[in-house]
Design goal:
globular, Lipocalin, ten-stranded antiparallel beta sheet, about 150 residues
């Protein structure tokens, strides 16, 4: 019985980790112009399924200003700059999120699911290391009065 437990547990763990990077396979990367129109003056909200403590809100303000909140063990605000380069959304953190790779320009693709209006991008914090949920569906909304307005 113990031998079966030692065999089954690693197999279940491997299956869980393999399934962690799932999602649609019919994603088309957006071009620079499309990303600009879709995100400038808007916010993007996303969270990996089953990860209530990993939600992100990113705000893409006019004139390259970028800010947001990581909903982890308590909200953690961050701010910096954003730009679009070579069909990718690029950010640079200036306050908060003290992660070395984010202090320089860090770029991600933005995708649209073919045949739908669903948008996807990688999680700002989960694209390296052991946990990579893959592209996550994002909810894009105009910046609200609560979070300020696009200038």
């Amino acid at each position: 019985m113990i031998a079966k437990t030692f065999l089954i547990t690693p197999l279940l763990l491997a299956a869980t980790l393999a399934a962690a990077k799932t999602g649609p396979t019919d994603l088309k990367p957006l071009r620079s112009e499309e990303i600009q129109v879709i995100l400038e003056g808007k916010s993007a909200l996303y969270s990996p399924p089953g990860w209530g403590d990993a939600g992100m809100l990113e705000e893409f303000r006019n004139k390259g200003r970028w800010s947001g909140v990581h909903y982890g063990r308590g909200p953690s605000a961050f701010a910096g700059q954003w730009k679009i380069k070579d069909d990718q959304l690029c950010i640079r953190v200036e306050q908060g999120l003290e992660i070395a790779r984010l202090q320089e320009w860090f770029c991600r693709a933005v995708w649209r699911q073919e045949g739908s209006a669903r948008l996807y991008m990688d999680h700002l914090l989960f694209n390296e290391g052991d946990i990579d949920p893959g592209p996550l569906q994002i909810a894009v909304r105009p910046l609200s009065e609560r979070y300020g307005t696009a200038e």
